[in-house]
Structures are given as structure tokens and as C-alpha cells.
Amino acid sequence: MKKIFAVILFAVLMTAGAVQAQTKNPKVLIDTSMGQIEAELYPDKAPVTVTNFLEYVNNKFYDGLVFHRVIPGFMIQGGGMNSDMQEKAGRSPIQIESDNGLKNYRGTLAMARTSDPNSATSQFFINLVDNPFLNFKAKSTAGYGYAVFGKVTKGMDVVDKIAQVKTGNKGFHENVPLTPVIIKSIRVIK
């Protein structure tokens, strides 16, 4: 009887371990010209956003693009422009998922968009500080905020270093790093 119980207990524990392994959040490595940033993504909270981001990652869309907007004390934004500030064409915009309970706290990744809440494509930003004014407030154009879908787990020192680069204007773009901060690649890691 004890042996049967031990076998059943072992099977239950193995199944629980397999389920836990399957539900682990994906992690990505953002390799930049200034160092590496590791981030965990939250598909349980932002499934459409994470799927969209990972499709861009898996298609190597981000390779060679830059962090094109850097504002100390606010955020760093990238994922859509090359070093000449030419926008790379992305896929169709996604539905906003900002009412998922995640907040724009320091170190979180969120989708960049226009004034249209459902306009996010490939561009994302990393919050340098807590930015509560970017959080979801209501299902209205002004209240949707920005959808958080991940968080930096390693490399905030790199994010902070990027935040200190000298910036200026390039064409009609403001807050552009004078020396490009290149996204060498973004890859899913285990």
C-alpha cells in the first residue's frame, strides 16, 4: 500500500512539475550596443501583446533597430526605427491590453502607440521610473494608458546607462540619441 501511495505521489509531483514548467513565463535577451537586458514576459496578463512581440522577436525584426527616443526620468523607446530614423514597416496594429492589472512601474516593458489606443505594432518602451499616469484608468481614448507586458529581470544598469546618453533632434524626431543605441538582437532565452 505504501509503495502504491509513493508511486501515485511521485506521479502527481511529476505532473505538477510538468505543468509548472509549461506555464513559465518566456524570457528575452535584448542585446544592445551598450550591454544586455533580460526581460520576463507575461502572456497570462497580456496574451495578444506578448504573442505579437514574440512574433517580431522570432522573425528577427528588431535586429539592427535602435532605441530612438530616450528621456531621462521617464523611459527609453525602441523597436521601430533604424539609426537613420527610418521607420521599419511592421504588421497590423494589435488590440490594447492595458486593463490587465500590470502597472507602468520602473523596469516594466510596455507597448508604444499613437493617440489611438489600438495602434501598437512593434515599438516598445522600458519605464525608467514609476509612471502612474501611463496606467489604465478607463475604457476611453484618454483612459486606456499603455499596455505593460513584461519586466526587466537583469540589466537595469544597462537601461539606466542608455537613459544617460546625449540626445538631440533628428528631423522632426526629438530626444534621439546622438550616438545610436543599437538593438543588435532580441532572442527568446530559456
From TrEMBL:
Reaction(s) catalysed (UniProt annotation): [protein]-peptidylproline (omega=180) = [protein]-peptidylproline (omega=0)
Where does the signal sequence lie? Answer: 1-21
One GO molecular function term of this record is: peptidyl-prolyl cis-trans isomerase activity
Q: Which SUPFAM superfamilies match?
A: Cyclophilin-like
**The protein's Enzyme Commission number:** 5.2.1.8
Summarize the protein's role. PPIases accelerate the folding of proteins. It catalyzes the cis-trans isomerization of proline imidic peptide bonds in oligopeptides.
Instruction: Spell out the protein name for this chain.
Output: Peptidyl-prolyl cis-trans isomerase
